[in-house]
Amino acid sequence: MTASSPTTGPIVLAAGGTGGHMFPAEALAQELKRRGARILLVTDARGARFAENFPCDERFEISAATPSVGGPVAKAAAAISIAQGLFKARSEFKSRKPIAAVGFGGYPSLPAMKAAAMAKIPYGVHEQNAVLGRANRMLVKGAQFTAHAFPALAKCPPSARKVEVGNPVRDAVAAVADTAFPQADSGLRLLVFGGSQGATIFANAPVEAVSRLPEDIRAQLTVVHQAREADVEKVQMGYAKAGVAAEVAPFFKDLPNRIATAHLVISRAGASTVTELSSIGRASILAPLGIAMDDHQTENARVLSEAGAALLLPESRFNADALETALSTLFANADRLAAMAANAKGRVKSGAASRLADLVEEMIGARMAA
Fold it and tell me: Model's pTM, two decimal places?
């Protein structure tokens, strides 16, 4: 059975806010398209920044916000925004007639899945993190399935139909997943990226730490550093002063390939990052975002750190001194880097996009049989 056809309507994928929500949705879209489905993407203005290559047949944006933060005025504004998103989604679904929906968390997912429920469109949710997100918590009661990435899913109601599928990875990640760990005798390669929030510390501590490394390590080292546009020049100058070859830019479109060619990665611990490190198999130093809801990035990071694949460095201790110690130790022991990379490989279930697509087809089949 194909998931969809031009005569049966599209499948809604709702995601937005950050790449952490958009990339798994993109991966599922790629898999469903291979199975003959039509895809309707529902996102917001923030998510649209990550949708340049999203394989959808149709798309619309809705207004959305979180009611979980801020005072009474902010909560009231968020409620109005969600109501507007719900109204638009209901109107769009009425004309486009989708047959199923999947929400990936983030602000747009809540009104889109609520609209699906009101229109009697079956839906499921996917949680990328080790802690069920706020939007998904408000949706699991009516969801046909709650797919999750990691073995444990905190804050999930016992009544939910939980299915561990892993995190869907984009084709660009799958394409480099079997890249062998690079030999250290051709030089050492460090990749640094700090995510879209709180990235200023990533423009300071790693550069200072690298500048303090022994000269013989700095001579072998090449750094690829994704920094905020406002920090690019400062970061470039820091590496140049340290005599370290570096490529610095606000964004790298080929980040999966950059991970594959690195010996060590310094990054946040977003679900997509942890999953891609596991898919490709690379050693890492992870600094979870301190302001993340329910501290979910720390739980994500533990998936790798407890497997001996990563060093977990809380944001409060993410400084030049701690990084210098870690980098000196790791770069002096190529065998340990290789072992950490091997420990990372496969720590998060692979084949998630296919398993999630199976759940979608099962949901559609049950609807057709009803």
Answer: 0.84
Note down the domain range covering 95: 11-168+351-369
Instruction: Output the tens digit of pLDDT for each of the chain's 370 residues.
Output: 455 444 489 999 999 877 778 889 999 999 999 999 999 999 987 767 777 789 999 999 997 655 555 667 666 666 777 888 899 999 999 999 999 999 998 888 999 999 999 999 999 999 999 999 988 999 999 999 999 999 889 999 999 999 999 999 989 999 999 999 999 888 999 999 986 554 688 999 999 999 999 999 999 999 999 999 999 999 999 999 999 999 999 989 899 999 999 999 999 999 989 999 999 999 999 999 887 777 889 999 999 999 999 999 999 999 999 999 999 999 999 999 999 999 999 999 999 999 999 999 999 999 888 7
* 280 assigned to some structural domain: yes
User: What is the tally of structural domains in the chain?
Assistant: 2
Taking each helix axis from N to C end, the angle separating 320-331 and 334-344, rounded to the nearest 10 degrees, works out to 100
How would DSSP label each residue in 297-352? HHHHHHHHHTTTSEEE--GGG-SHHHHHHHHHHHHT-HHHHHHHHHHHTTSSPS-H
The CATH number of residue 105's host domain is 3.40.50.2000
- Same domain for 220 and 143, yes or no, is no
Is residue 220, in this structure, part of any structural domain at all?
A: yes
SS3 content of the chain, % helix, strand, coil (to 5): 45, 15, 35
Distance of CA 278 to the CA centre of its chain: 12
Judgement on whether residues 54 and 159 belong to the same structural domain of the protein: yes
Residue 51, domain member (yes or no): yes
Same domain, 119 and 224: no
